[in-house]
Design brief:
The chain is an all-alpha fold and about 210 residues long. It contains eight helices and no strands. Helix 1 packs parallel to helix 3, helix 2 packs across helix 3 and helix 3 runs parallel beside helix 5.
């Protein structure tokens, strides 16, 4: 319990650091990148696994801050054909990195993640602009709920299939598992909102 609490506190402080307007996102990204790569070179500031988790994740928070503050506004103004090019080339680069196992390299992971993020942003803007696959918008709006709930729902689903129904066919597990992982948390979030329970996934202000 104590370890989880400490991790949550450090993670929360890290999140505050990279989302705070001071320092700017440039400073945030610079600091988190420097700490990340120094750790990869074996420069250990603190021998504590909680701190290690903060180091490994803070760079991704910073990349998220960059995308939200510096890129989203500009990306929305890019013409459609350029967005298609960014999307296809970005996903191709990620697929190439995975196939060549570059994606497993500690030093290349953030770069590949950033390329994939840019490609996904381009796809999101394209889908919105073309007014297709609007159901994906629901996934984005409830991404926190999906992220937090999918592990539990998929675990229970797989347990039921394997242990109770003795069903192990992999394609069914994958397809139904994805559907359960997406829509069970969404259903839970909708139910919580309708019954007025606001604290399942987020803390609400008392004021």
């Amino acid at each position: 319990g104590t370890g989880i609490s400490q991790y949550a506190i450090c993670f929360g402080k890290s999140y505050f650091l990279v989302t705070s307007p001071i320092p700017s996102w440039v400073g945030q990204l610079t600091l988190s990148t420097l700490v990340y790569y120094l750790d990869g070179l074996g420069v250990n500031f603190v021998d504590w696994n909680v701190w290690e988790g903060v180091i490994h994740c803070s760079i991704y928070f910073s990349l998220g801050a960059v995308c939200s503050s510096a890129l989203m506004l500009k990306a929305s103004k890019i013409n459609t054909y350029m967005l298609i090019l960014i999307n296809l080339s970005g996903y191709f680069a990620v697929a190439l990195a995975v196939k060549s196992q570059i994606g497993e390299n500690y030093f290349f992971m953030p770069i590949i993640a950033f390329i994939g993020t840019i490609a996904s942003i381009a796809m999101g803007i394209l889908l919105s602009r073309l007014n297709v696959a609007n159901f994906i918008k629901k996934w984005g709006l409830l991404s926190l709920e999906i992220y937090l709930g999918h592990v539990i729902f998929i675990y229970v689903f797989r347990l039921l299939l394997q242990k109770i129904f003795n069903f192990t066919e992999p394609i069914t597990h994958i397809v139904l598992g994805i559907m359960i992982g997406l829509y069970a948390p969404i259903a839970l979030a909708i139910i919580c909102r309708r019954v007025g329970f606001k604290y399942m996934f987020t803390l609400q202000s008392r004021h």
